[in-house]
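Let's do one together. I've listed all components of the complex below, 306 residues spread over four lines.
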Amino acid sequence: MRHPAQIGVARVLSLRTRGSMKLITRDTDYAVRALCYLAKHRERTISVPELVKALEIPRPFLRKILQLLHNKGILKAYKGKGGGFSMAISPGRISLIEVMRVFQGQFSLNECLFKKECCPRRYSCGLRKKIMEIERQALKDIGKITIGNLARD
Amino acid sequence: MRHPAQIGVARVLSLRTRGSMKLITRDTDYAVRALCYLAKHRERTISVPELVKALEIPRPFLRKILQLLHNKGILKAYKGKGGGFSMAISPGRISLIEVMRVFQGQFSLNECLFKKECCPRRYSCGLRKKIMEIERQALKDIGKITIGNLARD
DNA sequence: TCCAAATGATACCATAATTGTATCATTTGT
DNA sequence: ACAAATGATACAATTATGGTATCATTTGGA
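Okay, and this is what the predicted structure of the assembly comes out as:
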């Protein structure tokens, strides 16, 4: 009679140890903070130094983030002395999902499933349908969250 | 009169270019494939070589994945000639979420929000609540998908 | 008994993503 | 003219991802 090999005690086999799936990366997070700040002070033009002070985000990183938001048309930018950034769109019309897309790319639950027509794996189409439905719903919900909402606390 | 700086044309500022958020990583995907195969042949013990042939997954990587599934108590392992792996639990009781947790760690939409009590950022509690609700729902849905489901196609 | 075939444990490694820094050019208000 | 701001872009450190490789151990069977 054959018996299964014993299960080891708390031995960590690595292969993803400390990781934890995070849907929102740091740059998205910073971007949201900055956008909220700008949304709360729409009357003024806000400079990077001010944002750095208020939000405690590393300066060069924040600059890059703001530049990208500007290039994407989400912010207006004013160069020169007294310059800075301001919202280019109403905060209520900027959803979290858009910000996520700027910094994290398109959403796709599992790349593997999308390569090759309908995937050579038998199981995948079933999984794909279900997963896509979940994704669709989550996107819809995240889409409802706007900078406007968040800025109002 | 001051006017906003112009928006550049299709200039890519890097800071996440080709990335696309994927919720299911390759090892989870491989694990699911392997589990489905095992689920479909519960009567037998399946060896790595057989799985490699059937699923076209790189051998050493698959071995590591199976070992981890074994250590987590999801698979039974038989050493020695004629050995291999088999399900330790009913496929219907292994949900996708568990497999994801094994390979991708705990789910957490945004780490930043969880560090420091309730976060020094004003906006975050609002965001956190909404995001957590979305997360909760998605987890619930993913939890409903089991290896049993998937193996049945 | 010995060997081949299997897993167990673990160390290593290449590439890409993440999270930044640093620098120089340009614009603009005073 | 100068200082203060953004624009563009190159570089860099750390971690995650997706693997390889190696040696030890177990086990069935000739």
